[in-house]
Amino acid sequence: MRLLVKISVFFAFVVIVLGAFTRLTEAGLGCPDWPGCYGFMKVPSQEEHIQQAELRFPDAPVEHAKAWNEMVHRYFAGTLGLLILAIAIIAWVKSRRYSHYPTPVKLPTLLLGLVIFQAALGMWTVTMNLQPLIVMGHLLGGFSVISLLYLLSLRLSSYRLAGGDPELRRYRGLAFFTLLVVIAQIALGGWVAANYAAVACTELPFCEGDWTSQLDFSGAFSIPEADTYQYGAHDYNDRMTMHVMHRVGAIITFLVVCALLFKCWRKAKSHFFRRSLLVIGLLLSLQILLGISNVVFQLPLWNAVAHNATGALLLLSLVALNYNLSRKA
Ligand code: HEM
Q: Which residues span the membrane (predicted)?
């Protein structure tokens, strides 16, 4: 089961990266239906199938590259769903057969429920034409799945620091608060991405022109009526406000994470904790650099994919720190 969970963490990471790639190549609606693609289980390629597809969906001509991006994401996500199902079944069976050897059951069951909900969000992403709340929810769902899988993998591994570090345990509250701040920042990033607000503010450190008088907070967190949300439905002021919120969030996140790292570093005695603090610091710096490059270079594809992937890794590094701070054995 331990190996299966580790493989699933890796798979979840691949699914997250493929999800970002799909969105950024504007392939979110590459297949207008779900779970198939134009009614087929793979992208239609033969002439006769393409004709059938275009008869079924006259408003959505087949674009092979986009459709394949979307389908590869779905195949990997489907495989991840099966892996999580297998983990849940193994956990249930083990906990019944070997009651003297405790096997986590609640976490695998929660994961199974979450991955089913995540599949539903994937479907609504398509059927509701990229509604931003659904797109952001799908991003957060993916990050939740990988976090819980990683937590399960930590629970199944033996602790490398027997007894933990009692000096550091006092920072559990701060570590948990930092985790919540990072989750909020990820949600803001998801909102910017889902509303195509990345290029709504092109200067640093803040936006061009008289941006302060154009801020519109209620507009930024509303959802306008629209037939499709591809390429965004908000006006400039709303998008610029979303973008500014994510930048302010980045400053707050930076300060809170640095405070945690600074306090823990002074008390940490083991290499184990020092290494994990270093990893968090490196991921935070990389994430901020990638965020700034998103703005300076106007959202290059691989930069934006890397910003998403590093966000996931930063989250995992904080999940691990939180878990290890409270772990005793
Ligand atoms: C700790 C800091 C940060 C975290 C955790 C974070 C996280 C995220 C996440 C998860 C996304 C959504 C990615 C996606 O859906 O593909 C995002 C989007 C974005 N972030 Fe950040 N971010 C951080 C800092 C920054 C900074 C400092 C900037 C710029 C100054 C920035 C600029 C952007 C932009 C422009 C997007 C939209 C990208 C797109 O449309 O794909 N981020 N961020």
A: 75-93, 105-127, 133-152, 173-194, 244-265, 277-299, 305-325
Domain boundary among 158, 176, 209: 158
**Together in a domain, 5 and 101:** yes
Q: What's the ipTM?
A: 0.95
Give the structural domain span for 93.
1-158
> Which pTM value belongs to this model?
0.93
Q: Total domain count for the chain?
A: 2
Mutate-to-test residue for ligand 1 from 294, 301, 302, 314, highest number of ligand atoms within 8 A of CB:
294
Ligand 1 centroid distance, CA of 306 (Å): 10
CA 189 / ligand 1 centre spacing (Å) = 5
Do 28 and 102 lie in one domain? The reply is yes
Residue pLDDT, tens place only, 52-83: 888 898 888 889 999 999 999 999 999 999 99
User: Do 138 and 189 fall into the same domain?
Assistant: no
How many other C-beta atoms can be found within 10 angstroms of the C-beta atom of residue 70?
Answer: 26
Q: What is the 3-state secondary structure (H, E, C) of 272-318?
A: HHHHHHHHHHHHHHHHHHHHHHHHHCCCCHHHHHHHHHHHHHHHHHH
Nearest CA to ligand 1 atom 1: 250
- CA-based angle 150:28:223, to the nearest 5? 90
Same domain as 290, residue 169: yes
Ligand 1 neighbourhood includes 289 CB (under 6 angstroms) = no
